[in-house]
């Protein structure tokens, strides 16, 4: 299992190369990995169904309880199949959609990273490893949304998504840590549900984890990032923002349901937020005109349904949630692909500008129509079974009808009516009716752009006609995993005339009615748009924009942009702080060490002092630079005298390069009399002189005490024997302390990036600036 | 007017300095030297080339973009630390080739790590120097205009 996850990351590393070679077929070639993974996971259908416990444990940081513990049960298997199955189709679709794009290799790399991270998320048993994968999906989503990075919309949308999901993720991490502490295990399968529910921290844990789940699954009021994410290329929208990533929150709630669920707090929280989301999403979906936005809000609404069902937490509700998760992935993924194909061919996504595409994009229409019919809940699609099950759960048919159930059911009906309307909106105006003029003239879509939607739509039909296999291999095992105890799901098309069937009829009627009357209804309804859509969004944007402004003010106050001042601040502070500490607490060091000084060391010091004197009197910058380099080279000589050849060589090279750099900057610095007037030199002399004295005192008192460190002996002994090197300094750098060095070179690289960026900034006027 | 002597000299010095930098890199494990100093020497060679000729010639002589060199260096260093994972040892374990390679001596993951450090230092130093020199030339042209 770990290998399956790892391969996604590996593919990401090679994706740009493969794309350069395979060109037009890149999507098909790269899809080989997801399809391979799909087959691999499918091989586990039978073992999982028969209740085998499939695990893989890899130690990572055992002291903190963070291990890569993977577990394949019904729920994770179903998710894995969705991720890899739809992933295959998306790779193919993406290859066709972005064909010829320069950054296509990057796209596939990000997509692979996402797929691998998502797989890791659903397979993870260890809750902290799950968090790592969670954040990886956030990051790859950020990269994918911002794919067209030259467009400001894309960048803003990506940032908004990252900030919202990231903030939720942070809260969630706190919840996870508390959960691990309280439940006695950082592996979900080892958590004690009773310990969690009875603990005083239960409410806090619940709220924190829900913060993460709700932000990721775009629940109200954290939903504003999802419509914005539609700035991403449609393959991304179809994969991440409908079928997989947004389901992560729902998945988490399902996964933790055995541990956290079953309490009134759980149900209350989930049902309230879930229903609010259903309504807000459903309302906003039907007043839009952009195909992708319609689908995005509709997805938000559907996610609300899933959260509500998990909140209801009865056996039927659990089965319903799991089934709806699958059903929704199938039809939403297909519809997004259809929307993308329409956009790709005609150049517009506005349903007011589209019409009559049936003859030109017949196979696209077929796929879309199948998906839409499933979404509406028509017989004999799996969507119908899904809807019926939802109503069965909300009505709680086993028991008498309570007011809460009635309310929940009524609101669900409203939400589903919106879904019906959306299905009509997405398929009818673009394909049927009169041909309209569009920015591009469409002429048939390549196979890559319709095979995915057709397959998913057909699957929706097939699963509806023969639901027993789905029930046996996917729904039952998943529901059992969520329930914590084995659960059997029996799905079949016709139950007889039941209350659910009547509700389905009502839903269809309502949805069709709205669609037919939308011309008159939309202007009326659109007036309430402000609050629902813009309210939470304004808050977030306010925070996101406000923080940098605040930071700017603080920085402007303390950091004026002149490097010398920063150095002066630092040195002055250290001087005062260390100086007072030193002179009040430590005795002055004996100066007996100065007796061993040799004549050539004295001469060298003399040279340094002479150069210093000339530096302080320098009348031109060039002279100052030359004096400083004399000092630098003299220090090199000191290093040689004290037996540190590596240091000396490095210092020598750096000194030389520093001179080169200074000379390069020479033309742009103003005359030395401006930089360093008399007053300034006096001030600098005080600070520098004081600092020098304090440091000297400290060094003398440190070296007065003989150092007996075991490290010296350790390195001397082990350096040649174990590390195969006689140069202890180098051995420490690259072997014993290699980790530090790795960090250092990373920091160096980032510094280089910073310098290049700064160098490219053009100053407005010729005022003084330094680097 | 760049000096003719410098130009002729640097044409000979560049390969010599690069060879020397490589020598310093490889000897670092047993004698003074190592990746950091080696990288600085190589960078100094190209900096000298840029001074003798001009920036575009130095970039052409370097052949790769400095950022790319940094990337390769980082990847090499990281790969050297991750290689032990393939033989079931913890990260950062040094693996050595049993037989000493002729001329180079004992070679192992620490050598490749040091080589990665070398490349990063070359890349970083040259990025900074080239960026400053490029800015320099732009400003200079502006002044002439």
Q: What is the structure about, briefly put?
A:
Chain A is elongated and about 110 Å long. The two termini of chain A are 49 Å apart. In chain A, 74% of the residues lie in helices and 2% in strands.
Report what the structure shows.
Chain A is mainly α and 771 residues long. Chain A contains 33 helices and 2 strands. With 145 residues, chain B is mostly helical. Helices cover 71% and strands 0% of the residues of chain B. Chain B contains 5 helices and no strands. In chain B, helix 2 crosses helix 3. Chain B is elongated, with a radius of gyration of 18 Å. The mean pLDDT of chain B is 85.
Q: Low-confidence runs of chain A (pLDDT<50, min 5 residues)?
A: 765-771
Beta-strand content of chain A: under 5%
What Rg of chain A do the Cα atoms give?
A: 33 Å
What number is the mean pLDDT of chain A? Answer: 84
Largest sheet of chain A: 2 strands, antiparallel
- Count of distinct strands of chain B: 0
Pair with the biggest interface? A-B, 41 and 51 residues
Structural class of chain B: mainly alpha
Give the class of chain A from helix and strand content and strand pairing.
Answer: mainly alpha
How are the elements arranged and paired?
The complex is a heterodimer of chains A (771) and B (145).
Chain A: H1 2-22, H2 26-30, H3 32-42, H4 45-49, E1 54-61, E2 66-72, H5 74-97, H6 104-123, H7 127-145, H8 152-183, H9 193-198, H10 202-216, H11 225-228, H12 234-243, H13 247-260, H14 264-286, H15 291-312, H16 315-346, H17 362-376, H18 382-395, H19 403-431, H20 451-465, H21 467-483, H22 499-516, H23 518-525, H24 529-558, H25 563-585, H26 599-616, H27 621-641, H28 645-666, H29 672-675, H30 678-704, H31 710-721, H32 728-736, H33 738-760
Antiparallel strand pairs in A: 1-2
Chain B: H1 4-27, H2 35-52, H3 55-62, H4 66-82, H5 109-144
Helix pairs in contact in B: 1-2, 2-3, 2-5, 4-5
């Amino acid at each position: 299992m770990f290998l399956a996850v790892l391969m996604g990351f590996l593919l990401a590393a090679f994706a740009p190369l493969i794309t350069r070679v395979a060109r037009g077929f890149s999507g098909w070639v790269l899809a080989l990995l997801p399809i391979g993974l799909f087959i691999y996971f499918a091989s586990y259908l039978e073992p999982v169904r028969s209740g085998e416990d499939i695990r893989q444990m890899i130690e990572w940081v055992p002291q903190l309880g963070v291990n890569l513990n993977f577990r394949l049960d019904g729920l994770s298997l179903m998710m894995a199949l969705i991720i890899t199955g739809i992933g295959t189709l998306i790779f193919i679709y993406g290859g066709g959609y972005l064909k010829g794009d320069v950054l296509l290799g990057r796209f596939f790399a990000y997509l692979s990273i996402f797929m691998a991270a998502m797989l890791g998320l659903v397979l993870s048993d260890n809750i902290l490893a799950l968090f790592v994968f969670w954040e990886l999906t956030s990051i790859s989503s950020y990269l994918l949304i911002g794919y067209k990075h030259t467009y400001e919309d894309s960048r803003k949308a990506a940032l908004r998504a990252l900030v919202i999901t990231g903030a939720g993720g942070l809260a969630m991490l706190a919840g996870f840590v508390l959960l691990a502490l309280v439940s006695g295990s950082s592996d979900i399968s080892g958590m004690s549900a009773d310990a969690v529910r009875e603990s005083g921290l239960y409410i806090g844990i619940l709220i924190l984890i829900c913060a993460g789940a709700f932000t990721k699954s775009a629940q109200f009021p954290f939903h504003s990032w999802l419509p914005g994410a539609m700035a991403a290329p449609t393959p991304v929208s179809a994969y991440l923002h409908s079928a997989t990533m947004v389901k992560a929150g729902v998945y988490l709630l399902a996964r933790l349901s055995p541990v956290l669920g079953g309490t009134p707090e759980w149900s209350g929280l989930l049902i309230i937020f879930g229903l609010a989301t259903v309504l807000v999403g459903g309302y906003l979906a039907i007043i839009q005109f952009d195909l992708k936005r319609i689908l995005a809000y509709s997805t938000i609404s559907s996610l609300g349904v899933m959260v509500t069902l998990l909140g209801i937490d009865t056996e039927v509700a659990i089965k319903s949630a799991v089934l709806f998760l699958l059903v929704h992935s199938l039809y939403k993924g297909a519809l997004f692909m259809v929307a993308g194909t329409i956009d790709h061919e005609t150049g517009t996504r506005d349903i007011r500008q589209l019409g009559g595409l049936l003859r030109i994009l017949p196979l696209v229409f077929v796929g879309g129509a199948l998906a839409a019919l499933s979404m509406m809940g028509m017989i004999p699609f799996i969507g119908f079974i899904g809807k019926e099950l939802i109503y069965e759960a909300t009505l709680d048919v086993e028991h008498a009808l309570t007011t809460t159930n009635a309310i929940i059911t009524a609101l669900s009906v409203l939400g589903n009516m919106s879904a019906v309307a959306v299905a009509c909106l997405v398929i009818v105006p673009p394909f049927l009716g009169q041909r309209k003029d569009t920015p591009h003239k469409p002429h048939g879509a390549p196979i890559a752009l319709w095979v995915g939607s057709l397959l998913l739509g057909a699957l929706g039909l097939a699963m509806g006609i023969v639901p027993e296999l789905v029930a046996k291999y996917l729904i039952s095992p998943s529901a059992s995993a969520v329930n914590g105890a084995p659960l059997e799901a029996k799905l079949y098309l016709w139950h007889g005339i039941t209350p659910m069937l009547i509700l389905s009829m009502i839903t269809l009627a309502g949805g069709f009615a709205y669609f037919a009357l939308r011309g008159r209804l939309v202007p009326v309804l659109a007036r309430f748009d402000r609050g629902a859509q813009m309210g939470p969004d304004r808050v977030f944007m306010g925070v996101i924009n406000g923080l940098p402004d605040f930071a700017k003010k603080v920085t402007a106050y303390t950091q004026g942009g002149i490097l010398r001042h920063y150095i002066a601040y630092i040195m002055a502070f250290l001087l005062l702080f260390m100086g007072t500490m030193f002179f009040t607490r430590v005795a002055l060091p004996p100066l007996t060490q100065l007796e061993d000084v040799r004549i050539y060391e004295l001469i060298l010091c003399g040279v340094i002092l002479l150069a210093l004197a000339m530096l302080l009197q320098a009348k031109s910058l060039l002279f100052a630079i030359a004096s400083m380099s004399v000092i630098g080279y003299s220090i090199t000589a000191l290093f040689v005298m004290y037996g540190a050849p590596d240091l000396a060589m490095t210092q020598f090279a750096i000194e030389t390069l520093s001179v080169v750099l200074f000379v390069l900057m020479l033309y742009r610095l103003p005359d030395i009399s401006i930089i360093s007037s008399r007053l300034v030199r006096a001030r600098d002399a005080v600070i520098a002189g004081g600092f020098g004295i304090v440091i000297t005192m400290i060094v003398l008192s440190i070296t007065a005490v003989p150092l007996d460190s075991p490290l010296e002996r350790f390195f001397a002994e082990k350096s040649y024997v174990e590390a195969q090197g006689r140069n202890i300094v180098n051995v420490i750098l690259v072997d014993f302390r290699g980790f530090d060095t790795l960090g250092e070179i990373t920091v160096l690289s980032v510094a280089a990036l910073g310098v290049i960026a700064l160098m490219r900034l053009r100053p407005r006027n010729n005022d003084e600036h330094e680097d | 007017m760049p000096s003719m002597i410098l130009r002729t000299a640097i044409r000979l010095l560049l390969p010599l300095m690069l060879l020397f930098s490589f020598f310093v890199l490889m000897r670092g494990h047993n004698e003074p030297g190592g990746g950091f100093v080696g990288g600085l020497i190589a960078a100094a060679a190209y900096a000298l080339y840029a001074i003798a000729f001009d920036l575009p010639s130095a970039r052409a002589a370097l052949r790769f973009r400095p950022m790319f060199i940094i990337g390769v260096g980082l990847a090499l260093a990281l790969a050297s630390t991750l290689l032990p994972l393939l033989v079931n040892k913890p990260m950062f374990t040094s693996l050595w080739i049993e037989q000493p390679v002729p001329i180079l001596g004992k070679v192992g993951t620490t050598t490749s790590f040091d080589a990665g450090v070398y490349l990063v230092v070359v890349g970083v130093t040259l990025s900074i120097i080239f960026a400053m020199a490029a800015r320099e030339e732009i400003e200079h042209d502006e002044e002439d205009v």
